[in-house]
Amino acid sequence: MPKLTIDDLHLRYGTVEILKGIDAKFEEGSVVCLLGRSGSGKTTLLRSIAGLEEPYRGAIRIDGRPVYDAGSGTNLPPEKRDLGFVFQSYALWPHKTVFENVAYGLRLRGQSKAELQPKVQAALDGVGLGALAERYPSQLSGGQQQRVAIARALVYEPPVILLDEPLSNLDAKLREEARIWIRALIKRRGITAVFVTHDQAEALAIADQVVLLDGGRLVQSGTPEDLYERPETLFASEFMGTNNTLSVTLRERRAGRALVELGGQPLWGVDRSGADGGKAGSQTKGVIRIEAVRIVDGAGENRVPAEYETSIYLGNQFEHLFRCGDQTIRLVSDRRTGPGRHWLECPPERLWVF
Amino acid sequence: MSKPFRIAIILATTLMILGPVGLVIYQSFLSGPFFQPSSTFTLQAYEFVLFEEDDFRDAFVNSAIIATGMTAIAVPLGCIMAFLLVRTDLPGRRFIEPLVLVPMFVSSVVLAFGFVVALGPVGIVSVWVKGLVGTIPWYLYSKTALILIAGLTHVPHVFLYASSALRSLGSDVEEAARSSGAGPLRVALTVSLPMIMPSILYATVLVFFLGFELFGLPLVLGDPERILVLATYLYKLTNKLGTPSYDLMAVVVVAIIFVTLPLVYTQRKLLAAANRYVAVKGKASAQKPLAIGAWRWPAAALIVAWLGFTVVIPVTALVLRSFLSTWGEGVAIWPNLTLNHFRELMHYPNLVRGIVNTLLIASVGGALSVGFYALANLALHRWRSRWTSLMDYLVLVPRAMPGLIAGLAMFWVFLFTPFLQPLRQTLFSLWLAYTLVWLAYGMRLVSASLLQIGPELEEAGRVVGARPAQVSRDVTLPLIKAGLIGSWVLIFVTFIREYSTGVYLLSPGTEVIGSLLVSLWGTGAVDLVTALSTVNLALILVGLGLMYALGNKRHA
Asked: Of residues B397 and A22, which shows the higher confidence score?
């Protein structure tokens, strides 16, 4: 049985529909990333799970037990849901010491000073802040505050922990370290974590399951590899990675493959258009990641001619820009290249036709 | 806070606001006092006041003239002073700035006494000037003098809003004007002041509205020439016809609220607009004062002259007079210095009670009021519901009620409600009236600190397992503690200064300095009035000292 189930969840602010029917299942012990642009509803979904927003239709179940169910009128207040929540701003209480911040949840659960002391200390040690218990939040750095926020959310051992962009206030270097230790910490405890982010690299790095949201709807849910290598929709394919999105003419669709025409050259690709795909002769979109395109020596199958335009140097590689008719094709390569006409290869299994 | 609790508090506040107002409106349609069973529904009182009563019409016209005149004086002067003190290198501006707000903290009736004692026909300054030039070149009891004094004493209200708006303006916009060739005056008139227009507009409506509410100044300065304004007309109505004419008073109250309520509503809209306007250009880091060169000295002289006339002269004269055994032409100051008036003060049990009551209502009562304002704020806090918007509009009602009116309405409520009757002659009735009059102000003080708390600090409390009441207790209240103490000090000073609310509630047991001053002035006991005013000023000074100490502590 999944740990957390979301059924047909709808939520609106006034007349604005924010969540338009979300269905998802999160397995026990997995790290789930809610990924999407700002305004996609990912934070709202997280806050609904915590009970900080009130949906108007659907259900949210933890271990099969409804914490929200519009059908039966169930809506547990946040304090009854027994979850951990890490806020984007950390939301540490400035008037309490680090120790008291972490201890508060245990105090509310009726634990005596003697009972909670070792647990708080263990939680703080777990995030590497055992020595700072008597400090006030304002005396900590951003990274330390974030660790206190995580300790505070974990100390009473909730079965599910929710994290709202916890890394967004850290600088780039710290962020990369933090995502490794957060994942390790969550995995070590074996709890289920739901993690909101708008950064696809972060989602791919930290998650067992990525849930991609757009405009209040679920676009695709699966492993990071599923989303990156087998996007089901144009939106998913364009959202992940860096892409060339090409306007192409559809020639033929056959057994999961599609033949399109780009700059007068035929190209085979994977047919992702589903049942409602266009007819032969219609204009459609082809997407290929920039790392999939290669410069090759001469004409051949799935190759197009293109004029060299410019390059940028990225340190570990070059990014080249080519022009093919009225379309631009970007690709990465570890070699410089020169002006003139080149042949570019788009491997058929990596060109997705929608 | 749980929902039923929130609704209960909102309902209690609603009752507290609408009860008195409702009673006044009800009374205005009756032929006699509301507690007499023989009273019947009629429009007589309206017909009489609106069409037959010349005094009412005069009072209304006077109020309109005075409000317009004082606005025309206070707004330009307040804006210029704000610009000079906030944006220029005026000498001594850091020292002058806090002094500008002083008239706001002194009760206007005390200031009015000060003007009489200093500039009246036998005032201390008048007599001195007469000795120099042989005649007194002004007449204090004219309408012009009243408008001038009202205008000058309301400069701080404009200054407060204009200066805070100017402070949030980046100095880059002014530097840009300077480098394109504009002089300081041009910068002020074409760049700085237009950019804070919404705040100025707000202050303009505020001063105009305060002009309609004016009570202390016209009571003291308008009386000798029988210049009546709405509030003093209402006050005189009590005695005018021999018997208290409840119906007529009610109509006058309704008429005043009819004028003030739209003004308050406009203000609210303007304030929202002003806040939006300021938020657009948030960057106000490192303001560089504008160098105004030789203009510094005349500018400083202007401000010092204003301060001298509005604060130093009346307050000094008042305090001096309270230490003089007698005063008149040909009386020397030094041989007549005495403490007798203060000793005499101690012989009147009601005056002593008044001082004690004032302290009680300001300290304990003020704390209870802040507690109430905090509770009412918490009831509305982070709650999106119709109840919240209802309260938003309801608090406008007490704003539109001058203290005199709220006191009268509260007095009637305590007469009317059987179970409240025994409390009428206790400080409770007075406290309730004070709390009601300053409801909007106090609510805003407390909500200002509540707004500083990020919602996620409270949400974090909920998620780790705290019920709403526990969040209020463990998170919200500790976080606004400093703000609540600050609010209490401001309310303390406000309650000490208050004089009009207690006028109708004055009875043995509910005396406060303010209402005693109003009634003593009627008897002509100048010695006692000046002594009691000096005590009042001393108490306010204590409050200001407290504010200063707290302010410094918060900066540390």
From this structure: A22
E-strand ranges in B10-68 read none
φ and ψ of A219, to 5 deg: -90, -50
Decide if B464 touches A, using CB distance below 8 A. Answer: yes
HSE-up of A19 (CA within 13 Å, CB side)?
27
Question: In this complex, is the C-beta atom of B463 within 8 Å of any C-beta atom belonging to chain A?
Answer: yes
Give the confidence band of B541 by pLDDT, cuts at 50, 70, 90.
Answer: very high
- Residue-level length of chain A: 354
CATH number assigned to the domain comprising residue A74: 3.40.50.300
The answer to whether the CB atoms of A79 and B466 lie below 8 A apart is: yes
CA of A135 to nearest chain B CA: how many angstroms apart? 17
Three-state SS at B135: coil
The tokens 């009551």 sit on which residue? B357
Which residues of chain B have a CB within 8 Å of the CB of A82?
465
Given this model, what pLDDT does residue B313 score? 94
Q: Return the number of other C-beta atoms located less than 10 Å from residue B364's C-beta.
A: 12
Return the minimum-mean-pLDDT range out of A292-301, B272-281, B341-350: B272-281
| pLDDT tens per residue across span B77-124 | 999 999 899 888 888 888 888 888 888 889 999 999 999 999 999 889
A237 in a domain, yes or no? no
pTM: 0.84
pLDDT at site B439:
92
Q: Are A83 and A38 in contact (CB under 8 A)?
A: no
In the stretch 465-484 of chain B, residues with CB closer than 8 A to chain A read 465-468, 470, 474-475, 478-479
Quickly list H helices, B120-229.
124-133, 143-153, 155-167, 172-179, 184-187, 193-195, 197-213, 216-221
For A91, nearest residue in chain B (alpha carbons): B457
Is B463–A84 a contact, with Cβ atoms under 8 angstroms apart? yes
Residues A11 and A38 in one domain: yes
Interface probe with A: pick from B389, B462, B464, most Cβ of A within 10 Å: B464
pLDDT at A232: 87
Question: Across residues B198-203, what is the average pLDDT?
Answer: 87
All domains of chain B in start order, with CATH: 50-248+295-335 (1.10.3720.10), 338-555 (1.10.3720.10)
Taking the Cβ of residue B386 and every Cβ of chain A, the question of whether any pair is shorter than 8 Å is answered with no
